[in-house]
Design goal:
With 144 residues, the protein is mainly alpha-helical. It is built from 8 helices and no strands. It has one domain (19-142): Ribonuclease iii, N-terminal Endonuclease Domain, Chain A.
């Protein structure tokens, strides 16, 4: 899905030069599109307010924290990609008042991962991550 969104080409050196927060900036947008598309698909007849509430549950810091932990635990991401998560996690320091600092930092790492993969045009990996997280969202988020 993300492939059709790509307008500009980034060189590997450009991607590596970006801050982790810049990766998170684009990753947040890409993840939100996946979450919205998923919610719209499973809730076709819901009103927009309900769609928004359901999507918010998938894009909030706690959910992204849970998702990134599950990605690591289930070996969906390798050590290279985990380093991108840690880089993003370590760049974040101003958590919102309604979020746990550790969760917020890992959520930033999750968004950095998605942004990194998007700019590297690793769309199949984003699709794999999205399928894993969204297919299991109810289970993952209700266990925590």
């Amino acid at each position: 899905m993300a492939e059709s969104l790509m307008l500009n080409e980034f060189e590997k050196s450009d991607i590596n030069a970006l801050s982790a927060l810049s990766l998170a900036y684009i990753g947040d947008a890409v993840w939100e599109i996946y979450a919205r598309q998923h919610i719209l698909y499973i809730s076709k007849t819901a009103k927009v307010n309900k769609l928004h509430k359901l999507t918010t549950n998938l894009v909030k810091a706690h959910s992204q924290f849970v998702f990134v932990q599950k990605l690591k635990d289930e070996s969906i991401i390798d050590d290279e990609l985990w380093q991108v998560v840690l880089r993003g996690r370590n760049s974040s320091y101003n958590a919102p008042k309604n979020a746990d600092v550790q969760e917020y930092n890992y959520a930033t790492g999750f968004e950095s991962l998605i942004g990194f993969l998007y700019l590297e045009k690793r769309f199949e990996k984003i699709d794999e991550i999205a399928r894993f997280c969204l297919k299991n969202a109810d289970k993952f988020l209700n266990d925590n």
